[in-house]
């Protein structure tokens, strides 16, 4: 054993990890610092990690934007309903499939797995929404992401590990399947439910793809469409020659305003994330490590 | 029948989930017929005329199609070269940290970017790279070089996308490897310590072999998804100047389908991608089962 060598290993290792962590944090710190700095302080040093000429004027200005509030509200509606209905579906479907004795289980699983491997593609999905009359509705944002095979398998695997005896005992006392599911299995599945809650919430909050495909009217915009307009309305869309005139009409905002918008969009996730972290790490590990 | 009655609730529970799959996953698969028709929305799928494989003939004759195919493959390839080993290295480093609080804090920081949307990240990227006020060009001009409009240069496009994606997902990718590392038998480390193995030797001869099955499975899975580049990251960062290197299947289908309204052709391109993807992923799973005895599902 060579104590000095061990020490060197740790020094290098810790330094590397710290450097990587800084690389992860820097953009967040920079975006925050710029968002509360004056525009001239930003131009003088765009790399700042500390506010220069502290001001909240960018936030005050963006909060006055007429579309911000409705986009925020739409995103919240879509996220909450996506989480609620999605989890209901996962719980209801995963429970029967976690029962090894269930007849026809293999067929159901194949049907689910096949949807993970093959899909109709953009146009058929668009056509479906159109046929259902859901184009340009918030429902068109909720429905496509409601249910994924991957999350279902995580939950099913978790439920398979719940001891059968608990359910047997309840059944002896005359409990029905719905009672067992919601009173015994669901409370025991908290870690995986919390994990899928977070996954579901993040995928709805962050989704841009479905918004850009299915949403037309500005009053149904989600936060991501709003953010895109604020940021690319200025730089990208003009170069691309596409997009609409929304940003131009509202005269193109300077970078501090864009950074404030970035912060406003990120804040909810930055706030809940540290509290949920312990659940999702546990949830994923239990759900995926099965051998 | 008795079995069904006894377990009727279990089957009732399954109904909503399977109705969902039927309507939102399986129904669009029949919509693939659009690829073989001269489709328009007014006449609907069944009212439009069959044109057989015309769209596919057009597709293999099209330069754009091959550009898209090449871009998709190259972008994925770079993604694998840079993005695949990175989380393994970081997971190995994290695994060597004994200080629990430090480990927890750094892990929290490392997972964080995964939860940021591509719209946010692309916003940050395009501001950082902006020729007028971006911080990259601030540095570039500080050292006396000419400012570069990075996002307008096709030669930088793949580097930008790949770097952004590695930054976003490297920490998240460590979770699965860390889980695999907890499964390595601790007595192996103890006996190695007694034999005088260094920390690096232990990583090389115990930890890495211990997670090799996981590495193989994930690599195969990545190869199986080689045509998937993700719509959002490319769509948000590319522009006509960078179509040459940036245009991939997802963005191409969107542009020709929903923006240009060439629905049948877009469906044919989508079908090509889905079908090839399906074959690749089945092959990847088969290979994973052969090599490690484990399959992906």
UniProtKB/TrEMBL annotation, chain B:
GO cellular component: plasma membrane
One GO BP: transmembrane transport
Protein name: Protein lplB
Source organism superkingdom: Bacteria
Annotated ABC transmembrane type-1 domain residues: 69-284
PROSITE patterns the record matches: ABC_TM1
Regions that span the bilayer: 12-36, 77-97, 109-129, 205-227, 263-288
Family: Belongs to the binding-protein-dependent transport system permease family.
Species in which this protein is naturally found: Paenibacillus beijingensis
Keywords in alphabetical order: Cell membrane, Membrane, Transmembrane, Transmembrane helix, Transport
Entries under Pfam families matching the protein: BPD_transp_1
Zinc as UniProt keyword: no
Intracellular or extracellular location(s): Cell membrane
Membrane topology reported for the UniProt record: Multi-pass membrane protein
């Amino acid at each position: 054993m060579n104590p000095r060598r061990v020490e060197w290993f740790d020094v290098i290792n810790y330094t590397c990890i710290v450097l990587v962590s800084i690389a992860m944090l820097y953009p967040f710190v920079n975006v925050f610092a710029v968002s509360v700095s004056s525009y001239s302080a930003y131009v003088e040093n765009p790399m700042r990690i500390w506010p220069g000429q502290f001001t909240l004027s960018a936030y005050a200005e963006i909060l006055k934007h007429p579309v911000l509030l409705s986009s925020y509200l739409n995103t919240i509606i879509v996220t909450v309903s996506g989480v609620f209905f999605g989890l209901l579906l996962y719980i209801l479907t995963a429970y029967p499939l976690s029962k090894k004795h269930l007849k026809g289980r293999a067929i159901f699983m194949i049907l689910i797995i096949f949807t993970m491997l093959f899909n109709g593609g953009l146009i058929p999905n668009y056509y479906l929404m159109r046929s259902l009359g859901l184009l340009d509705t918030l429902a068109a944002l909720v429905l496509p992401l409601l249910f994924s095979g991957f999350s279902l398998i995580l939950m099913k695997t978790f439920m398979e590990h719940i001891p059968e005896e608990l359910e047997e005992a309840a059944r002896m006392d005359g409990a029905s399947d719905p009672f067992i599911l919601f009173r015994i299995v669901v409370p025991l599945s908290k870690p995986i439910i919390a994990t899928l809650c977070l996954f579901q919430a993040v995928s709805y909050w962050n989704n841009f793809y479905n918004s850009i495909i299915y949403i037309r009217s500005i009053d149904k915009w989600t936060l991501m469409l709003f953010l895109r307009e604020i940021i690319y309305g200025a730089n990208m869309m003009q170069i691309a020659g596409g997009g609409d005139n929304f940003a131009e009409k509202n005269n193109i905002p300077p970078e501090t305003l864009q950074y404030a918008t970035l912060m406003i969009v990120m804040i909810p996730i930055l706030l809940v994330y540290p509290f949920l972290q312990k659940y999702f790490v546990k949830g994923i590990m239990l759900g995926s490590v099965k051998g | 029948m008795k079995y069904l009655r006894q377990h009727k609730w279990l089957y009732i529970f399954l109904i909503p989930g399977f109705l969902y799959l039927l309507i939102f996953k399986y129904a669009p698969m029949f919509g693939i017929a659009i690829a073989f028709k001269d489709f328009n929305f007014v006449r609907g799928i069944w009212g439009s005329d069959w044109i057989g494989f015309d769209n596919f003939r057009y597709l293999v004759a099209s330069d754009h199609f091959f550009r898209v195919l090449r871009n998709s493959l190259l972008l994925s390839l770079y993604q694998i070269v840079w993005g695949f080993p990175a989380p393994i290295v970081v997971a190995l480093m994290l695994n060597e940290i004994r200080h629990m609080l430090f480990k927890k804090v750094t892990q929290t920081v490392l997972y964080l970017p995964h939860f940021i949307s591509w719209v946010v990240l692309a916003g940050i990227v395009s501001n950082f790279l902006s020729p007028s006020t971006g911080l990259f060009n601030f540095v570039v001009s500080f050292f006396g070089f000419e400012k570069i409009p990075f996002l307008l240069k096709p030669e930088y496009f793949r580097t930008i996308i790949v770097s952004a994606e590695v930054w976003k997902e490297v920490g998240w990718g460590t979770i699965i490897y860390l889980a695999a590392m907890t499964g390595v038998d601790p007595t192996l480390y103890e006996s190695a310590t007694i034999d005088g193995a260094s920390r690096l030797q232990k990583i090389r001869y115990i930890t890495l072999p211990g997670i090799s099955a996981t590495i193989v499975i994930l690599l195969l899975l990545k190869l199986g998804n080689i045509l998937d580049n993700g719509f959002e990251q490319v769509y948000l960062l590319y522009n006509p100047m960078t179509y040459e290197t940036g245009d991939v299947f997802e963005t191409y289908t969107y542009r020709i389908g929903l923006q240009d309204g060439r629905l049948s052709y877009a469906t044919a391109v989508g079908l090509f991608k889905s079908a090839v993807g399906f074959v690749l992923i089945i092959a990847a799973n088969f290979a994973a089962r052969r090599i490690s005895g484990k399959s992906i599902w």
